[in-house]
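U., I forgot to send this yesterday:
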Amino acid sequence: MIAIDKRLLVDSVIVKIIQKKDDWGKETYQKVSLSPVRFDRKSATVGTANQRSWSKSSTIFVYTRYCSMTIDDSWLNAIVDDGDREYKITSITPVYYPHNRKIFSYEIEVV
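Result:
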């Protein structure tokens, strides 16, 4: 695979992973910092005329060479804070090296 230049990874985010609910139904979080990462923010309009809505899906690229974090399904529905706004993790896609089962990167889709 192509080596990614660390100078392109200019973002850092904080992920609040939902741990459990306490006796009163309040969720407790574990905070994890991801840095350096690449965060591609995207917003678009969907539909026409009066049926128009905003789609604000974005993608976070985490390269294991620079950010040695194991990301699994417990991260689904976690909250991502980039300093400006909060997003919710909707899917996680591991990207593997072509000739072995080592993970090259993770693509985390957020809304």
